[in-house]
Amino acid sequence: MTSTRERQRAAARARLEKEMAERSAKARKRRQTQAIVSAGVALVLVVAGTVWLAVSLGGDDDKPDTTAAAPGASECAFNALPTEQRPPQIKDVGLPSNQQSATGVQTMTIDTNLGPITAKVDRSLVPCTAGSFTYLAEKNFFDNTKCHRLVSEGIKVLQCGDPSATGNGWRDTDGQGGPSYRMAEENLPTDKRPPYPEGVIAMAKSQDPGSTGSQFFIVYGDSPLDPAYTVLGTITGGMDIVKDVAKAGDDGAFAQQAGGGHPKKEVIIKDLTMSNPQG
């Protein structure tokens, strides 16, 4: 009897140990499977993250880098004005190319009713502004427009470049026109005294940075203006025309605002051209 019971107990212990071993083996297998699956998921996430990073940073070798400027060129930002911010005086002629040549010298020729005015423009100093001016000139943007403002005391400038300043007489909106984009200022004369000497041609703007458009001014006497306006170039001919206009004076229309007024001696830009860069 005793030996029979012992054998039964031993058999029961053996079955229990076998069952526990099988359970242990199954649990171990489940853990291994879970570990493999987890590792696989992690790998997928890493690979997916790598792909996202490559795309978001432009790491696709099959696509050319369109943001880098070509040799001898500058990358320019011409910022289109929102449609709702475009008054009737704005003339939409599209946008210049964002890559502009930064080499060579151009001749600007302003053919007026009083005779030609010429200026030298160095593209290495103002690649974006010169590029914009060339683009606008090719679009006949300045043709048949009037220089709308003369300041015969103080800053001594003749201001032009508003595409809406045309026809007979003057309007209250003269001076509010320009292209449908704006750009940053360049070649600021922060180290020059005076910043704008006689013979400089520079770009007009509002008080806000990055507000340069198409309007420009010719300085006919050393000017104490703050060095916040792009120096586009230097007058090489026709300064006598500008000085004759200055001698005739202005009508004081802007005296209570920006200063000066419409020139009493009318200046009409019949045509404005920019030569191909030389040198």
What does this structure look like?
With 279 residues, this protein is an alpha+beta fold. It is built from three helices and 15 strands. A hairpin with a 5-residue loop joins β8 (149-151) and β9. The protein is elongated.
Q: Specify the number of helices.
A: 3
Measured between the Cα atoms of the first and last residue, the distance is 120 Å
Instruction: Outline the low-pLDDT stretches.
Output: 29-66
Amount of beta strand: 15-25%
Name the helix and strand elements from N-terminus to C-terminus, one letter apiece.
Answer: HEEEEEEHEEEEEEEEHE
Give the SSE map:
Blueprint: H1 2-56, E1 73-75, E2 79-80, E3 90-91, E4 99-101, E5 105-112, E6 115-122, H2 127-138, E7 145-146, E8 149-151, E9 157-160, E10 178-179, E11 181-182, E12 200-203, E13 216-219, E14 231-237, H3 239-248, E15 268-274
Parallel strand pairs: 3-10
Antiparallel strand pairs: 1-4, 2-11, 5-6, 5-15, 6-14, 7-15, 8-9, 9-13, 12-13, 12-14
Question: Brief description of this entry?
Answer:
The chain is α+β, with helices and mostly antiparallel strands and 279 residues long. The protein contains 3 helices and 15 strands.
